[in-house]
Amino acid sequence: MSRLHNRWWIWAALWIVGCADPSRPGGDPARIDPPESLVVAVERLRAFIHEEMEAKGLPALSVVLVDDQTPVWAEGFGWERPADSVPADANTVYRVGSVSKLFTDLAVMQRVERGELDLDGPIQDVLPDLHPQAAEGALITLRQLMSHRSGLVREPPVGHYFDDRGPTLTETVNSLSRTALVLPPQTRTKYSNAGIAAVGFALEEHAGEDFAGLLQREVLAPLGMRSSGFEPTEGIRARLAAATMWTLDGREFDAPTFQLGMAPAGSMYATVLDLGRFLSMLFAGGTGPGGRIVEAETLESMWTPQFQPEGTRTGAGLGFFVSELDGRRVVRHGGAIYGFATELAALPDERLGVVVVTSMDIANPVVERIATAALRSALAVRTGADLPELAPTEPLSPERAERLEGRYVDADGVASIDLLERGGRLYLEFVAGGSRVELRERGDTLIADDRTGYGGYFVEAGDGIRSRAGSSYRRIAVPEPPAAPERWAGLVGEYGWDHNTLYVLEQDGQLQALIEWFFRYPLLEEASDRFRFPDAGLYDHETLVFERDGQGRATRAILAGSVVFERRALSGEDGSTFRINPLRTAEQLRPEALAAQPPEEVGDFRDPELVELVTLDPTIRLDIRYATTNNFMGERFYEQPRAFLQRPAAEALVRAHQALERHGYGLLVHDGYRPWYVTRMFWDATPPDQRLFVADPSSGSRHNRGAAVDLTLFDRRTGVPVQMVSGYDEFSDRAFPDYPGGTDHQRWLRELLREAMEDEGFQVYEWEWWHFDYGEWRRYPILNQTFDQIPPA
Hints:
With 793 residues, this protein is an alpha+beta fold.
């Protein structure tokens, strides 16, 4: 036996008994290298993982591959805590989200085996106070709950996915009596976190023991899962990966760490090595290092699709979802919780399994793809077949992305998709709803491939695209959409929490909900202020009901009669000018700013040639806010309402203004060249937590170089400025160029402005839809002349 195999068997034996390395939490190795037979396959998988992490911006990722009852590879990639340069490894702890449900359901099956719980008896036998409204004679059972066939709402009124108050499991499940069944029991699969919360509470009530402690004693400890738990102990916190949230409009922020009230459904913490022990138990027919967990027959029953005709091979089992991979049976479960994405998949007949976890929100398609690649690679090694292709995709060239941008419609004129170019990348978005996903290329094929999805192959076909399935889409012009129906005006807005915001928007004459940051659904209007989600997706068949104040403005949105999203207070939403509370007044700031000197620069700069815009085209309109008190500070900064740009930028802006005439619009300029001392005043007046929206004077602003402009559109017929999604100089998310809310007409106008300016060499600033930088701004020096010091052009 080779030295590699000798080392491998030593690691395997130590891993099983749980004493591999007493210096590590739980005594586990930081890494398990593969046996000789898998070295080539694992090298290819490592390269693939590195490519995926770089392309998708994943901070940390850990993986374990289990062959029968032995981990044949375990490793971490990236950084467990990037800020502290702590690398991820096989011992990094992650929140594994809904993978928690497998352990809750396993604990139930232990009691079912002992005859203590009845899968098919009414849940009220254990929880007599649980009474959601239901049709007469409708009974909820543990079997229905565990296979998502109970018809319960997805989220409970208390302790739901958005609830950061940390309520108890008792409070969470008791709140379900305030809900009504969305569907009659057993009629169809409807995923419910609330249902598994009830399952866990039934365990707690039956045992007379706290749920987390019960799971630790009866399931996790016998499995040897010493680094895992349903509560964040000191040891778990010490190795917990720092997780990242992100949004469609380009923000990233630290994931919240609050505990879910429905802990049995999604609050488990684990390492991949511990989850590998769970896989080993499955392949050992229910036996773990501490003895038998459940019988092999019990596992088979959990892997059987429930409420399906006999012989059905796919569907929801008890806890597990059953599917197929290349004709082989797969039992699996994914997990998604704030900042984390998990995939656990096992081939029970081949006794081969994998777990992949990452610390990036909604990256489930990425971990699923890596897990599938690992299973296929291991199977190929076993059977002597060729290793599967792991070819990465590549970003499109900016030229190709720009060429393909537009709206496309299918041959029936029904299904529409938008291809959006953003920063040289191309994104696909279905107009009727769904997630936005980047299109990348492999050869001449376009493939949807980013954190939120993979697949959907397209090729270019004339002035359109064609899917691999044969559907053709032709490009069409997008006419100016009408204003949204007046009855929805008070509904469009933001609701809920900072960590998870619900957007209610209008698209193509339809009210839509963008929920959990990425999932956009059309809403069916059932009655005044009452809408229903479609019969697929996260909240299938559930309602969204709005309550309004006396002025007709919605104050809250209530999901499924239970989860209350309070309307978010957004400054400027009523059309008023956004205001900050300045740290000091302009009168106090001006003497200091005028006495200060701009930063020194070294470079080969062009000679400035500032040109007053209206001298090039007097039809350009001005609304120079900083020459008035109608601005974010409520003070005057300029003595004269004038706008200047460097000549090439000014001439490009005139061309954009003239191109907009065919749409009936023109450019209304708020600001152009800005003396450096004014930038210094802005910075010193703005509270630190709002300085994202003002330039740092230590490096100067693009406005100071005369190569940036703030502007909007006006209607040439009336001279009235258009209504955009946000107001000018609004310090909020609504200012972002890709903010997803608002109405179809507002976003169309924002896009029209962007296209007109980008066609002439400007680029929109990433945080402000109204701010555009001319492409050559770096070639101009920082200037500090007042307007009356600028020589005539």
